[in-house]
Amino acid sequence: MGMKNNKTGLYKLAALTATPLILAACGNGNSDAEDTSNPGSEGASGEQVELEFWSFWGSGPRRDTIEAIIEDFNETNDTITVEYVYQPWGDIWTKALAAIAGGNAPDVIVQDINSVRQRADANQATNLQAFIDEEDISGEFYPQLWETVLFEDEAYAVPFNTDTQVLFYNLDAFEEAGLDPDSPPATWDELEEMARALDQESGESWEQIGFYPRWNIGADVWTLNADGGTSWFDEEGNVAINTPEKVDALEWMLDWQDYYGRDTITQYEAEFGSGVADPFISGLVAMRGQNINYYTNLRENAPDDFRFGVAPLPEREEGSGNWSWGGGFVLEIPENTSHPEESYEFIRYLTSTDVQERFGMNSFDIMANVEANENLADNTELDERAQMIYDMANQNLEQTVITPVPLNAPDYLSLVNTQIDAAFLGEKTAEEALEDAQNSVENLVEQHQ
Amino acid sequence: MKAVEEQSQFKKAVSEVRQLRKKKWSPSQKKEAMWGLLFVSPFIIGFLGFMFLPMMFSFIGSFTNYNITSRMDFIGLTNFRRMFTQDELFTTSLYNTAYYVIFNVPLTAIGSVFLAVLLNRQIRGIRLFRTIFYLPAVLSGVAVYVLWMQLLSPSTGLINTILSWVGISGPSWLFDPQWTKPALIIMRLWSVGGAMLLYLATLQNVPKQLYESAEVDGAGFTRQFFHITLPMITPIIFYDVVTSTIGAFQIFQEAYVMTEGGTGGPANSLLFYNLHMWNQAFVAYNMGYAMAMSMILFLIVLTLTFINLKLAPRWVHY
């Protein structure tokens, strides 16, 4: 009797667990039926594919635009439906990594441009070369951006947007100081001269600080600017940290710190950090090096009568080049997803000139597609300032370097930064610091071999 | 002779135990055992699935070049060799963490005992004070760290403003590598409320007559504190020290939030062990190396806990 009871219990259990499966199966059947009855989907082969697209655009114009763009894509495309999933900035890539390892990755994801090779090497991204071979789209993008998506000469991502570091300067402050607002500093010497003219000291504090190189731009950008566009690693992948030009650049930055005083600098820095008021908008800082996307900040927060100009980063000396640095994001298909072809079609859509132009127009991002930026620079729907920004970006990208993470030392940056910090704390000279950094990173490269 | 006797006694005991084991369980005993296992199964399953298996995986992974997605080759002791002979940041991170543990553990213990003693009085409004001091322990996470970043701001922060009233020009705290760790330790002291609550409960269990007889004997507050209160609460101090040592070694969140995405702060002064490990695992994809690091941390904490347990009988009064 007991046995029998147990058995019926088992059957009940089996029935209970099976119910949701059966229900799910019914559900699928229903939706399939709906699909075929949908007059929009043509042909029997037109199987519906749903794609999951992850990005970190959670609010504001970027989110609105991407959602509108996806809506249009879904409306015009009969077989593919894209679902937009927002993942917070701090989580998205760790989550993606876990999802890839767990075999349930999204179909398309916005990724960091600098680590494409790393992911390609670790089998985290789908090789897109077969698609590129069919239709070579590499020429549509800025060459240095396309370079970042190649691993062993094959493409693993498509660039989406980018950025570049430029100099913003306050036109009113220039006029007030008797400087010509139409000729921003072109060299480091001019930058220093103009900064001195713009400086206004009052007692122990500053009413106006002309310029400080390390605000909003890292030491890495100025060293790269000084060294003909060579970052901490040269083109062959050798460690190129203690070059004479970079030592020069670091000494130059240290001179700026000495001029204003280390305490003054940290104090102001801490205040900027807490984001109370933007020092450029408030007029405390007259010139500011920053990524060009800072324009969106000015648009949103600066008063209407705030007048500013943009210029390339000054060059170390005449002829050394206005080298700048940039970053950006790419679109990737994680490894082992079920619909790479459809996913690529969606990526192709997002990186096409029209869609790129549309995204840029609403978000003021600098796009990866060259033609899109050129169109935006002439787009009369944008105001003059926005056109100026796109024009500047387009021009500046000719001398903008992207610095992908080197595969043989992915974690090198903190080693370099320690040494640079030591120099700014007065513990080491510029030469010693960069020498030590060179050795540290060479040692790291060895560890990874 | 005595030895032989002891031996035979031992043998007897062993055979008794064997018999006990052999003895079949009655159905009711079996049923009881099943129910018992059923009731502890959530813990056992949780422990096996979420602690033991991952730890085993981590142990095995520490001898490989595992990178989460594409490779997992056995590379022997390479990870450990790299850790102790080549990785500069490993030493830095270990130093930073040790510094933090050495100051944080005793200071929070002293701080919470001190607060608990102060709040163990029968005066008006004591409940309000207890709540106020306990409150920070409930608040946690990013919001608190952001708040403290503002409090610690060199020129406009509340802390330096108060210091300036007494003529001290405060340091740059989170911007000066010499002050970043002290800043963090001070910040952590703010939330001693959790441990304080434990002490408060224990203090109220100390028998009143001990104090009464001490008073009759003429012992003052300090003597009472050191000769009655402190010895009576040593078990809880012990518990608190052991758990907070383990916790302090795992400091991560604070540094991750306060140093812009885990960069380690000025001159890597806030690059704690777990932060370095995290960077290795999820930034450089050196998961095998990170697993090896976690094994070393496990060993360090295990050793310290063991030492703690060994030393306990000397100062803990049960």
TrEMBL record, chain A:
GO biological process entries: transmembrane transport
Protein name in UniProt: Multiple sugar transport system substrate-binding protein
Top-level division of the source organism's lineage: Bacteria
PROSITE patterns, alphabetized: PROKAR_LIPOPROTEIN (PS51257), SBP_BACTERIAL_1 (PS01037)
The family this protein is said to belong to: Belongs to the bacterial solute-binding protein 1 family.
Keyword Transport: yes
InterPro entries per UniProt: Bact_solute-bd_prot1, SBP, SBP_1_CS
Record keywords, A-Z: Signal, Sugar transport, Transport
Signal sequence extent: 1-24
UniProtKB/TrEMBL annotation, chain B:
One BP term from GO: transmembrane transport
Keywords: Cell membrane, Membrane, Sugar transport, Transmembrane, Transmembrane helix, Transport
Membrane topology: Multi-pass membrane protein
Transmembrane region(s): 33-57, 98-119, 131-151, 182-201, 287-309
Keyword check for Membrane: yes
GO cellular component, one term: plasma membrane
PROSITE patterns attached to this UniProt entry: ABC_TM1
Localization annotation: Cell membrane
SUPFAM superfamilies hit by this protein: MetI-like
Pfam families, per database record: BPD_transp_1 (PF00528)
Family: Belongs to the binding-protein-dependent transport system permease family.
Protein name in UniProt: Multiple sugar transport system permease protein
Taxonomic source organism: Alkalibacterium pelagium
Native organism taxonomy: Bacteria, Bacillati, Bacillota, Bacilli, Lactobacillales
